[in-house]
Structure formats: C-alpha cells, structure tokens
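Exercise 4. Each item below gives a protein and its sequence. For each, produce the structure-token representation.

Item: Probable electron transfer flavoprotein subunit beta (Modicella reniformis).
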Amino acid sequence: MASNLRIVVACKRVVDYAVKIRVNAAGTAVETANVKHSMNPFDEIGTEQAIQIKEAVEKAKGKVDVIAVSCGPSKAQETLRTALAMGADRAIHVETDDDLQPLAVAKLLKAVVEKEKPDIVILGKQAIDDDSNQTGQMLAGLLNWPQATFASKVELAEKAMTVTREVDGGVETIKTSLPAILTTDLRLNVPRYASLPNIMKAKRKPLEKLTIADLGVDVKSRLEILKVTEPPKRQGGKIVESVDELVDKLKNEAKVL
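Answer:
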C-alpha cells in the first residue's frame, strides 16, 4: 500500500433520502424549502472509504490527507462538517447559489484537484437528487485520468489501485495506476456514525471557502428543465378468480399481452 496519499472526496448536500419528495407549486423543481438535507448517501460511502484508506495507511506508519469538497450554498458547510466529523482532515467549500449541473461540478472539482494535486478523487457513483451518474466520469475525462466506477471493493498498492466493480450480470476487477478517479457503489462499505467528540473536533478543523470566480470556471447551464411532474398515483390491485380471467384482464384492460 502507498505510504503517503492525498485523497479528495466529493460531498454533495441533497434532500435527505427519508424525505417524501414533492414537486414545487411552479412545477419547475423538487420542493427544497424547509426540507431536511443531508450528505448524498453515495458520497457518504465515498467519505467512509477515504477514511478507511487513511486508517489502514496510518496503521502502516504512512500518512494520508483527506480533503472533503462540496460545491453549493452556504448550508453545504453542514455537509462538510459531517465529513470532518467522520474523519476527514480538512474541507473546501466552493460557495455558490447557482444551480450546478454535472459538467459544472466536474469543472469546479478539476480546478480543486489541480490546486490540491491528490492521488485519488472519490465520488459517489450518483447523487440521489438528479441521478445523473455523470460527474465522476466527466472529471476523469477533463483530467485525462483513469477511472474505476461503481466500486464494491478497493485495494491499494504503491502507485496503483485494484477495484472490483459491479457490472450487468456480475463483477469486474480492474487495476489502474494513480492518480485516478473512483466512484462508489452501495456495497463498498457501511458509513460510520460521527461520535459526539468527533463532531466537536470537526468544528475546529480547517474549512476553506472559495468562490467560482476564485477558480475561474464557467458554470453556465447547458440544459434547461422545462417541467417537473410527479409520477401517476398507483391504482389499487384487483383479485381475480382464475388464470383465464387474469390473462383476459392483462390482454384487454392492461393491454400488456
């Protein structure tokens, strides 16, 4: 395993996974006012993986610097403090009220990566608010770095990384040199809960604030959302008396046969 590493981990603030989502009155987006937010679950897994790597390397007398990064409004600092409480060493907040699309986030992360020069950048495979599954791949393309996506297992060696990743019908094991991009899947780990002492310590850890202007990045939207609608309400089921009646209903009413 590498003896000295720097890891950047992306942490997006999203509507909490347990909240029942509603479309806003204008039909332009999901309602976010007065709604509980938390760290994107896949990014939480990514943060846990970065900390596990840190613990393993430092146990072998190495050194790892874990930097949590979030792009978003001032309240995104809460998400970064969560990452710091979990065990990240410091945080960078790119503060903006703009609605950032995946390409814009990838460009902002690229600027941070060029500034910090990490060995690994870890992102969740997707965010649960937009489900785009694009930022990690776009960042790899912008940096011209190798990427290992949908990771379910990660093993590090000197200047290399072996990743087991989930694919249709099974798993695939790949090996890549460092620096590299890693995106995390659900089965990679179970994120830890931040203890109260670590939450208190997180308040004293460094959190650097940057703006889009500081990074000199164009975050202009390339996509326009025309309308957001809720899915149709689910209809109640019907009990049928026989297979023939079931087939008849599937054929003539549901028209799926």
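Check: The CA atoms of residues 152 and 187 lie 5 Å apart.
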